[in-house]
Amino acid sequence: MKYIKYPFNEVKHLSFYLATEEYLAIHFPDDEYFFMWQVNPTVIFGRNQLIENEVNLGYVKQNNIEFYRRKSGGGCVYADFSNIMFSFITTTFNKDFVFDKYLSKIVDSLNQLGLKAHFSGRNDILIGELKVSGNAFYRVGNKSVVHGTMLYDTDISVMVKAITPNNEKLISKGIDSVRKRVTNLKEHFDLDIETFKSKMIELLCDEEIILSSEDVLGIEQIEKSYLDPDFIYGKNPNYSLVKKGRLKAGTVELSIELKNNIVKKMDIKGDFFLVGDTDQFLNYFKNKEFSRLVFEQVLKSFDVQDYVYNLSKNELLDLLFE
Q: Tell me: domain 2-233, CATH 3.90.1150.10, correct?
């Protein structure tokens, strides 16, 4: 197996590394290729996933966490610079065989480093009973690609907050639950992250290839497809949220129709007293991002109680975003 290296040391966006997989599958000769990569905090969701269901968009934007859609299936993943991403490209076309072949190589290498690793189900690698790696599969032309995570020292609390709906109770339970099911490699040996990477290359690969500047330009051309908003958001249909609560103003029920987390339509019902034009009130939020931060900015431009008697700005925000 050949190890792929870049002719630079800078950290790229996750989209660049996904584009590398495609580039190798399309342009490199038939063989097996492997490379590892790390990114700044990033959320990656599967090809067929609805972004608003998988990503806490308010949290990731407020914390400068990037987010991208990948072309493989599977679930939503969080990665930071203490998480190592593996990519494997092969001419083998049978999905089950590819998973077995690739995961066996990784598991054998981890065991040679003194870890009691094994794979479980179709795509997870465990140490004992705790998950340390999850993997996904897709095809590019006549090649197969497997890519996955390898938790080294990832911040589990940030992981859960980034991929859990904005609900403090769910986040708290999620952190506890994930900590009981996953583990970081750092908890199981004394190797630093760079030594671990070097050892894995040594165990898995017998040749090293450094990409050329022309290869990098080719990768950047493919990367554009991952950066296209139509690809990141395009599979998302319009969908509706309903937020209902008993407030000082009375029973308030808000229906919000969203497209790519942008408000397209809002409706308000309840037994409260209207003192202003409902359409004008709701129109303030149209075509705005559905996030607490943006709604707070909108609400600075008018007084809610000019439209709904005894409804405060904070009560409205809490109803919508908690």
A: no
Contacts with 145 (C-beta within 8 Å, 6 or more apart), sequence order: 21, 22, 25, 72, 87, 88, 89, 137, 138, 139
pLDDT of 105-142, one tens digit each?
Answer: 999 999 999 999 998 876 899 998 999 998 888 889 88
In this structure, the number of other CB atoms found within 10 A of the CB of residue 156 comes to: 17
Phi/psi region, residue 296 (left: phi>0; alpha: psi -120 to 50; beta: rest), is alpha
Give the CA dihedral 167, 129, 93, 222, nearest 10 degrees.
Answer: 40
3-state secondary structure 157-193: HHHHHHHCCCCHHHHHHHHHHHHHHECCHHHCCCCCH
What three-state secondary structure class fits 121?
coil
CATH of domain 239-321: 3.30.390.50
Is 126 within 8 Å of 116 (Cβ atoms)?
no
Cross-strand bridge partners of residue 34: 3, 88
